[in-house]
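Supplementary material to the annual report.
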Amino acid sequence: GAGVSQSPSNKVTEKGKDVELRCDPISGHTALYWYRQSLGQGLEFLIYFQGNSAPDKSGLPSDRFSAERTGGSVSTLTIQRTQQEDSAVYLCASSYAAEAPVPYEQYFGPGTRLTVT
Amino acid sequence: GENVEQHPSTLSVQEGDSAVIKCTYSDSASNYFPWYKQELGKGPQLIIDIRSNVGEKKDQRIAVTLNKTAKHFSLHITETQPEDSAVYFCAASGDNYGQNFVFGPGTRLSVLP
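Predicted assembly:
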């Protein structure tokens, strides 16, 4: 079946511009995560959506970052007034989440490589 | 919150040898421990996971062991092959995950032919 897809795969933008990154999760997955991965580094948690609950935004590094998830499916991560330090790979993952708060494996998309010049 | 450490950061082995990567976690409430493999230019992919009600799990050449008392878990790869070369991430999560699903910093494994 279809996995998690992300678009664009690569994005080059000038400092100060806004960018939008899109994530299409696996159908039926109610949990969705965004992570940031700098070159050669681990995964930095950004934001988590679970069903209709309020998102966990505790990982967003500044108020220039925001994300939304429409209709419990597609998610968009927006970075306003981009800075060079925002350059990284942005990964999206989705997960099945049962009613009980038991963690399940995450399925990752291929990522969007963002370069801010 | 949870903190996950991973060692070593890089590991080189000869083809056919075994590789072991170790992780420690801080939150005794964590109960789910997955391992992900990330190849160049791709997103991480789950290779094996273990829950806190078991001490060991094996899938062909890959095994994971968990010591809840010591709060550490390890990935074992036997008979390594060049295609095992990748970055491996461990993670730990408890219930009510979200930010509590925490990844280790990763181990770059190189299998030398």
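The beta strands of chain A are 5-7, 10-13, 19-24, 31-37, 44-50, 65-69, 75-79, 88-95, 107-108, 112-116.
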